[in-house]
Design a protein that fits this description.
Elements lengths: L2 H14 L5 H13 L3 H6 L7 H15 L4 H5 L1 E4 L2 E4 L12 H13 L5 E6 L5 H9 L3 E7 L2 H13 L6 E5 L11 E6 L14 H6 L13 H9 L4 E10 L5 H10 L2 E8 L5 E8 L6
Parallel strand pairs: 3-4, 3-6, 4-5, 6-7
Antiparallel strand pairs: 1-2, 7-9, 8-9
The structure holds glutamine.
Glutamine binds next to loops.
Length: 288
């Protein structure tokens, strides 16, 4: 079969199985099998695909029919235009989280110093801290996760982008393993889905993505409560905390941050107009 036939056939199969963007996914999967850019597939739709590659591609489509996410099939995900290694057990980077990385870059620029210490708490694949350090040479980042697979993958991803000298990954249950360390910016996209909403998530997420990276306790607030209470102790004067938040959570989290001694709270929407990124700074009163 030629490239064009494989793409249209696979799109049809995936459409019949309720995949919402089948052609785009077929392009990603075939470009991964052939090790080429997606644009190559458009320009060479009459080119014959070798039988062994066809077989691998059809195997990928079978997996996708079972709702295994594309990123787990290919082992790759894109975030802030950078490629990240990903595997089952590690949360797949989401487009809305790019707003968090952009906010870090804006804050780092305003710090007016040549060295900005960033903490990416609950780092998963490491995409937030790594992309921030990649785009701003003044940033050094500690990436923290409780899951050893996330720490290993973050380390590999830092190496992939030649950032081993400015990015380190640490296995720690929140701040327990980084006692005494201080940062200029603490960023986090913690688990925030209320436990009773997990059952209603899309099959792709519910069946295959790590529950520990999604479930934020009964009201989704478990991690925000801990972060609001503990982060101040780990921030330098004029430091900031930046958080991704779930739908309808921003006001409650702003309240938690105020009680944790933070001020100057601002909220930014994602591309769908949902309040998504909260930024706050340590107030002038020292936090005990
Ligand atoms: N945004 C993710 C989702 O909706 C959740 C990520 C998180 O809990 N931090 O699947």
């Amino acid at each position: 079969m030629v490239i064009g036939e494989l793409l249209s056939g696979a799109s049809r199969i995936m459409k019949d199985h309720g995949i919402s963007d089948p052609y785009k996914e077929a392009l990603i999967l075939l470009s991964c099998v052939l090790g080429c850019e997606k644009s190559y597939l458009f320009a060479h739709s009459d080119e014959t695909v070798p039988a062994e590659n066809q077989e691998v591609f059809l195997g990928y489509i079978e997996k996708r029919k079972k709702r295994i996410p594309v990123a787990y099939i290919t082992g790759k995900a894109w975030f802030m235009s950078l490629e990240f290694e990903i595997e089952p057990g590690i949360l797949i980077p989401r487009p809305e989280t790019e707003g968090l990385a952009e906010e870090i870059l804006a804050l780092a620029m305003l710090q007016n110093t040549e060295s900005v210490k960033l903490l990416d708490m609950c780092c998963g694949s490491g995409c937030i801290g790594i992309s921030a350090a990649y785009y701003d040479k003044n940033i050094t980042a500690d990436l923290v996760d409780i899951n050893p697979a996330c720490v290993r993958t973050s380390r590999d991803n830092a190496a992939r982008h030649n950032l081993r000298d400015r990015v380190i990954a640490i296995e720690s249950n929140l701040f327990k393993g980084i006692k005494g360390k201080k940062y200029d910016i603490i960023a986090s996209n913690p688990p925030y889905i209320p436990s009773d909403q997990i059952a209603g998530l899309d099959d792709d997420v519910r069946l295959y993505e790590p529950l520990t990276a999604l479930d934020g306790g009964w009201d989704g607030m478990d991690f925000y409560k801990k972060l609001a209470k503990e982060a101040g102790r780990h921030l330098n004067p004029f430091g900031h905390i930046v958080l991704e938040v779930g739908i309808g959570q921003s006001e409650k989290i702003a309240g938690l941050l105020l009680s944790g001694g933070f001020g100057s709270i601002s909220v930014k929407n994602d591309l769908q107009g949902i309040p998504r990124i909260i930024t706050a700074s340590v107030s002038s009163v020292p936090i005990k």
